[in-house]
Amino acid sequence: MARPGITLDQVSAAADKMVAEGKDPAITTVRDMLGTGSLNTVQRLLVEWRQAQPPKQSQTASLPDYITNPLAAGITKQVAEARAEVEHRLVQAQEEARVLSELGEVLESENATLADQAVVLTSERDRLAGKAEMQEKEILQLQEKVKNLDAATESARLEIATSRLRAESLIENDVARKKEIEKLHEDIARSQESKIAAEQDAAVLRERVASLQQAMAQEVERTLAASISAAEQVKKAEDRANTAAQIAAEQAKKSEDRMEAALSQLRQMQTALDTSRQAESDAKEKLALLRGKMANDLSAKNGEKESGPHDPVAVANPDERTMNEAFGNII
């Protein structure tokens, strides 16, 4: 197929002009005259132009009839045979030239297509190279986020370990408080031998102590539950951190939120521990006050016994008021 702008008329006009100037129209000279077009296209159109040219008439010298007539038949036959052979070979050459010309045009078209594809592939290669560079930067950023997440997880582990130690310390303190309460029970038991009213008040005291023990036990259970819950959350954060390289941006945000929630729970647990310690301190003070008052009551009672006999009802009432005041302070 001829390129746009190259037609048979243009090639024919250029060839006719060269023939008029006494030149042989060749492929390169015709293309140079036109200034455009491929050699294959010019060659094919030039063949078509040659085929359209009328055969040249050769001029022969006049001879006498007695010479030309005997030779005319033989010469005509030989010329016809020679012309048939030449025309046959010319047709073959023209067909071969046409096939070669068409093949050349196909190759030129393929070369142009390949050149366009090369441009597209080069552009795609540059685009992919830029994309690969961006992805490499994103991978480096994700790796940095994973490192930060590992550091935060380790910090949370340390805080959980500290919280567990504090919980264990709280349990030990609770054991000590239980021993003090048991001792108080023994004191109350001894006080019951001396007075029925004191026994009744001691029963109330035992109920108060039991309530305090239950409250303390519930506080310890809540503290331990909060510690275990925080440990479970840290474990979940560790599991999610293992897959952070694949979905780092979204997973890092979720892990940070979970870390913040764990820290908040740890702060709440610290507050609960402080409250428990304050309650323990208050209980100790009240128990000390109770012991002091009971000791004073016993001393006063012993003093009254030494001073002489009194009305049993009158003697019992002051002690009962004193015990009621002591238990009222505890309540």
Characterization of this structure:
This protein has helices spanning 8-20, 27-34, 39-52, 65-192, 196-242, 248-307, 312-330. The chain has 331 residues and is mainly α. The chain has a domain at 132-330. Helix 2 (27-34) packs across helix 3, helix 4 packs antiparallel against helix 5 and helix 4 (65-192) runs parallel beside helix 6. The protein is rod-shaped and about 200 Å long.
C-alpha end-to-end distance: 112 Å
Helix content: over 70%
Which secondary-structure class do the elements indicate? mainly alpha
Instruction: Provide the residue-averaged pLDDT.
Output: 76
The total strand number stands at: 0
Task: Note the main sheet.
Answer: none
What gross morphology would you assign?
rod-shaped
Rg, nearest Å: 60 Å
- What is the element string, with H for helices and E for strands? HHHHHHH
What is the number of helices?
7
- Which blocks of ≥5 consecutive residues have pLDDT under 50? 310-318
Strand content: under 5%
